[in-house]
Every structure is written in structure tokens, then in C-alpha cells.
Design a protein that fits this description.
Layout (H helix, E strand, L loop, with lengths): L5 E7 L13 H4 L5 H7 E9 L7 H10 L3 E5 L15 H14 L2
Parallel strand pairs: 1-2, 2-3
């Protein structure tokens, strides 16, 4: 079976289980989650998570990073990275992408 290879994946406030505060997302988190497929398909993997996220617990994003063997980027005071929390851009995503590209050119 031929699998398409992705250059990478960056998950911001990622999680892989039912989130009590957002039940409407349950359809995406129920059933088995194929961590190995992500590892095999995405060459570069990163999870960006805030230590004080009130929507997705930091520990859930950290667990996801471990499950998919991804680099974890911890932000101390990012909340859920919402505009009303002061975020209209997320420069750390640019930094992670830049690191992906620099690894590709080596």
C-alpha cells in the first residue's frame, strides 16, 4: 500500500480524546486514533501548547505529543491562543516551519 508522505504537521492546542467543554468535537475524537500512522506519514511533527490553556488542558497536548513522537513547544501564558487573549498571529508556528525547512536543506 502506497502512503503519501507529508512534510510535517503542526498541532496547536492539540488533543485526541473527548473534550468535556466542546462536546461537538466528539465525533473527531471517538474511536481509535492511529498514532503510528501519523508518525509514519508526517516526517516532522510538532505540538504547540500553552501551560494555561483553559479549553484544552496542557497535559492533553503533552500526551498527544508523546503519542505521535512530536516535538512539544510549551508557551507559558498563551491561553488558548485566541484573539481575545491577545493573539492575532502565532509567530512560533513560523519558527517551527522555518526549522522544518532548515532541516530539509541539510
Amino acid at each position: 500500500q502506497l502512503r503519501k508522505q507529508l512534510g510535517g504537521v503542526i498541532l496547536v492546542s492539540g488533543f485526541a480524546k473527548s473534550l468535556p467543554t466542546l462536546k461537538m468535537l466528539d465525533e473527531f475524537t471517538q474511536g481509535s486514533f492511529d498514532h503510528q500512522k501519523i508518525i509514519e506519514t508526517a516526517k516532522h511533527r510538532a505540538v504547540i501548547a500553552s501551560k494555561n490553556d483553559q479549553i484544552v488542558p496542557f497535559s492533553w497536548s503533552k500526551e498527544l505529543a508523546q503519542q505521535i513522537d512530536a516535538a512539544l513547544y510549551e508557551v507559558q501564558h498563551g491561553g488558548h491562543f485566541l484573539e481575545n487573549e491577545g493573539f492575532t498571529s502565532l509567530p512560533i508556528v513560523y519558527d517551527v516551519l522555518t526549522s522544518y525547512f532548515s532541516k530539509e536543506t541539510r
